Amino acid sequence: MKAEFPDTTKSDAELLQDYVQGHVESLDQLVERYRKPLFTWFLGMTGSRSDAEDLFQDLWIRVIRSADRFKDVSFRAWMWQIARNLLIDFRRKRKMDFSLDAVSEDDDQPLLETLVAKGPTPQQDVERIDMAVKAMQAVGKLPPMQREVFLMRVQGDLPFHEIAKILKVPLNTALGRMHDATTRLKQMLTKEMM
């Protein structure tokens, strides 16, 4: 039996069209392409692994339900718009605050501990953990509009023109929010280092 490898040459829109035509594996490829940036973004915006998993799953349910009607130029921008709308609905329902101290329902660890990278030596671990904690705390203190743009750019690897389209703001507004976010983060982290 010949092993099948994902077709990395197909665009997102082509994979979605293949799915509509009955090729389920095409949807699997799309999910894998966007798993890390989307899940990380949901996690960063909700502060809960469980909520991030639910939102990630809801996103793909909506993509599946709307797949046959997709006519947009950019699948990625369309998908991120769906993700953002889900987050807005989630926030309306929950009226929650973002907290990096929130405990994950899955493993009873604070969000900060689930996001921290592990280093090869104990000393490097301590330094990296300290820096990661400070950085994530600083990101968590950003105003929601700045945090949203920052995480879409850094975690989602979205270009600014797509971020602007998703947020329905002018490109300069998205760029301005990113500039304000990075300026604020630098100030907060510099203050922490002193």
Task: Walk me through this protein's architecture.
- It is a single chain.
- The chain is mostly helical.
- It folds into 2 domains: 90 residues, Rna Polymerase Sigma Factor, Chain: A; 79 residues, Arc Repressor Mutant, subunit A, CATH 1.10.10.10.
- The model has no long low-confidence stretch (mean pLDDT 81).
- Helix 1 crosses helix 2, helix 2 packs across helix 7 and helix 6 crosses helix 9.
- The chain starts with 11 loop residues before the first helix and ends with a helix.
- The longest helix is centred in the N-terminal third of the chain and has 23 residues.
Instruction: Assign the CATH superfamily of the largest domain.
Output: RNA polymerase sigma factor, region 2, helix turn helix motif
Unreliable spans are none
Largest beta-sheet characterization: none
> How would you name the oligomeric state of the polypeptide chains in this document?
single chain
Count every helix, treating DSSP H or I runs of 4 or more residues as helices: 9
Distance between the amino and carboxyl termini: 62 Å
- The name of the CATH topology of the largest domain is Rna Polymerase Sigma Factor, Chain: A
Number of domains: 2
What is the structural class? Answer: mainly alpha
Query: Which CATH C-level class of the largest domain is it?
Result: Mainly Alpha
The assigned CATH architecture of the largest domain is Orthogonal Bundle
- Give the fraction of residues assigned to helices: over 70%
Encode the helix/strand succession as letters.
Answer: HHHHHHHHH
Gross morphology is globular
